[in-house]
Write a structure and sequence with these properties.
Length: 336
């Protein structure tokens, strides 16, 4: 795939078509295109956790300098709205601090009041799909292998979500990188699966077979059919590291960012609360729902089918497949 091919998405708030500025796009495209034919030593090194840590340090841990020009330039490039930030903007003096910024989400990321509404877990570009061949959004085995994603030994969870639906959220480096709980319910399981650090650049995704089920990831299973829960069945939230991501820190807080907790089975989680933090780079969240329990929002489904948008996914899969840029805690679906 030529690196000059643009990638566009839909801004949900304006309904406008946006051409994405992809970081290191020519390099990543070349690396993954060659790896498709021959995944050599350079490719394995580039997608290792150690190399991701090194790249993360070089890109995010060096200071901006003393005159502030570098900081202002990075803020402008990332499109950060400093008025949203919880901390004093003057303290955001490294790319890492900008990346890990906290926002006044209770003010600038409103959440629907209805308890049966599922909300976006992150500021991200979103696609939806189904594992059921009878559905129009059947996308099995394109972005990830369902059998691998939840862990090879977790056969009971694969059975729970068989023929269900999923939503995929691609976070780019400029985004707010706290994940929030998309539903309310009781955690039944939480575990980490080791893996590599493949890029989530669209060029990498279409060149590499099911990359998101090969990366390191944290899986959280939530039962929402409990008192105070969202009432949409079992939900799996999969937080996937990608290139330059150093870690996923679980830091659930019921009130703003205060008194963060490490999550464990048996805990009740409220909807829309900070759950975890990516450190730093680009990354992906995947939500998986049981068959027939969730109806995705109409505008997100309509946007996916638009033919007037140049999406690398549409070109590769030969069917309209367009992302919608969504805000964390915004509605993405409701109880079916």
């Amino acid at each position: 795939m030529p690196h000059a091919t643009p990638h566009q998405y839909i801004d949900r708030e304006t309904e406008g078509v946006i051409t994405e500025r992809l970081i290191a796009d020519p390099l990543i495209t070349r690396l993954y295109t060659r790896a498709r034919e021959n995944p050599g030593l350079l490719f394995r090194a580039a997608t290792s956790r150690r190399m991701s840590a090194v790249l993360g340090f070089l890109n995010f841990d060096l200071t901006f300098g003393t005159n502030g020009a570098g900081r202002r330039r990075r803020i402008r490039q990332m499109g950060i709205h400093l008025a949203e930030c919880l901390d004093d903007p003057a303290t955001l003096d490294t790319p890492r601090k900008l990346f890990e910024r906290r926002i006044r989400y209770w003010q600038c990321r409103p959440m629907p009041a209805a308890a049966d509404r599922v909300v976006a877990p992150a500021d991200a570009r979103m696609l939806v799909g189904s594992f059921d061949r009878q559905q129009m959004v059947f996308l099995k085995e394109k972005f990830f292998s369902f059998d691998e994603l939840l862990g090879g030994e977790k056969t009971h969870w694969r059975e729970t979500f068989a023929d269900g639906d999923f939503a995929l959220f691609r976070l780019t480096p400029d985004k707010y990188h706290y994940n929030h709980t998309p539903v309310a319910g009781v955690i039944q399981d939480i575990y980490t699966i080791d893996g590599r650090c493949h890029s989530c650049n669209p060029a990498a995704v279409v060149c590499m077979a099911t990359p998101f089920s090969k990366n390191r990831r944290v899986v959280t299973i939530i039962d929402t059919d409990v008192p105070g829960g969202s009432g949409i069945g079992w939900v799996a939230m999969v937080e996937v590291v990608a290139m330059m991501i150093g870690d996923i820190v679980q830091c659930y807080s019921t009130f703003r960012y205060d008194d963060p907790l490490d999550l464990s089975a048996g805990m009740f989680v409220d909807r829309g609360c900070p759950k975890s933090l990516y450190r730093p780079g680009s990354s992906v969240d995947i939500l998986i729902f049981q068959k027939g329990r969730l109806a995705f929002s109409d505008d997100i489904l309509a946007n996916m089918r638009r033919r007037d948008v140049t999406s690398r996914y549409s070109r590769h899969f030969r069917t309209p497949l367009v992302e919608t840029d969504v805000k964390v805690r915004s509605e993405i679906g409701c109880k079916a």
